Structure prediction request, 76 residues.
Amino acid sequence: VTTFNYNLGKQLNTEIYLSIDRVKENAESFNNTFTDELHRVIIHGILHLCGYKDKTQEEKSLMREKEDYYLSLRNF
Prediction:
């Protein structure tokens, strides 16, 4: 997932790009469904736009915790 944040003041202007092929690969690698992995990647991108980083191990752990939390809120 790649995110771009072009916000100006209170105006939201962002882009999120993801690779469907990578989502499929990750779903297989992590023994996950395509839909669940797609949702995780979308949430991951949104978290980046909210200011979360994933460069250090501590940041990665927090990012995963947040992803899991927001995934748990789905009711579909």
